[in-house]
Write a structure and sequence with these properties.
With 252 residues, the chain is of the alpha/beta class. The chain has a single domain, classed as Nitrilase/N-carbamoyl-D-aminoacid amidohydrolase (4-Layer Sandwich), CATH 3.60.110. Helices cover 21% and strands 28% of the residues. It contains four helices and 13 strands. The strands form two sheets. A seven-stranded mixed sheet has the order 1-13-2-3-4-5-6. A hairpin with a 2-residue loop joins strand 7 and strand 8. It is globular, with a radius of gyration of 16 Å.
């Protein structure tokens, strides 16, 4: 994989977007891919690593009921161990159970100390509503040291109210796993930049590195500073690790 990295005074921990490529419906293979990103991230001092939407299965909506995962699932044991060993918090994309018959599109976070959490996509695209249940939690915040991180998944980031709620709740970082094409990216990136600038939050977008479901991903995973300027970004598709680290004078 390629690495894009830079420092910023706007962050207090080292964060990264994993622009990974998913094998359709092959969780074991995707876990192996994730582990390669985790090892590379650990080598570069990353403390929080975010993967794309449905990164562990690919964007295969119709198959989600048969592919449900949860933080304690046996298939995720290598990732739990990697989080413990490396000291990394890892957020991965997966189908998860909901309170209704249809599953939810989830972001599972595995903490190095053993903590686990699940965020369920709150805003669905129109084409997802026949396959998925929206989450009941409009905002999901997690803490690492003094840094508060708000989770988002793809269509969440198209709704300005979602980012505004994150900012109002005290988030320093708005971190989203997504899947979007070149056309989608061109329309959505101005929103992400605006969230960073207007809410004074660092915004992290982790897109797929290759095609998934019916989408040809644009890649271009990016981390924007609080002025809406890119700290680090991938130039296009392919496997990339995009890292933003604190400026030396900002490090604790």
């Amino acid at each position: 994989m390629d690495i894009a990295q830079a420092a910023s005074k706007d962050i207090a921990i080292t964060i990264a977007a994993a622009q990974s490529t998913s094998a359709p419906l092959d969780v074991a293979a995707n876990v192996r891919t994730h582990l390669r990103f985790v090892e590379a991230a650990a080598d570069h001092g990353v403390q929080w690593l975010v993967f794309p939407e449905l990164s562990l299965t690919g964007y295969e909506l119709a198959a989600m009921p048969a592919m449900l995962l949860h933080p304690g699932h046996a298939l995720l044991a290598p990732l739990r161990e990697a989080a413990r060993r490396t000291g990394l918090a890892i957020t991965v994309g997966a189908p998860v159970e909901s309170e209704n018959a249809l599953p939810s599109i989830g972001a599972i976070t595995l903490q190095p100390g053993g903590g686990r959490s699940v965020y369920r996509k709150f805003h669905l695209h129109a084409g997802e509503k026949q396959f998925a249940t929206p989450g009941q939690e409009p905002m999901h915040l997690q803490q690492m040291g003094a840094t508060c991180i708000a989770s988002a998944i793809c269509a969440d980031t198209n709704q300005p109210i979602h980012a505004a709620r994150a900012a109002q709740a005290g988030a320093h970082v708005y971190a989203a796993g997504i899947l979007t094409s070149k056309t989608g990216y061109a329309a959505e990136a101005p929103l992400w930049r605006a969230y960073a600038r207007e809410h004074r939050m660092v915004v992290l977008i982790a897109n797929h590195g290759g095609p998934s479901g019916s989408y040809v991903s644009a890649g271009k995973s990016c981390i924007w500073n609080t002025q809406g300027l890119p700290i680090a970004a991938s130039p296009g598709d392919g496997d990339w690790l995009v890292i933003a680290r604190p400026s030396p004078q900002e490090s604790a």
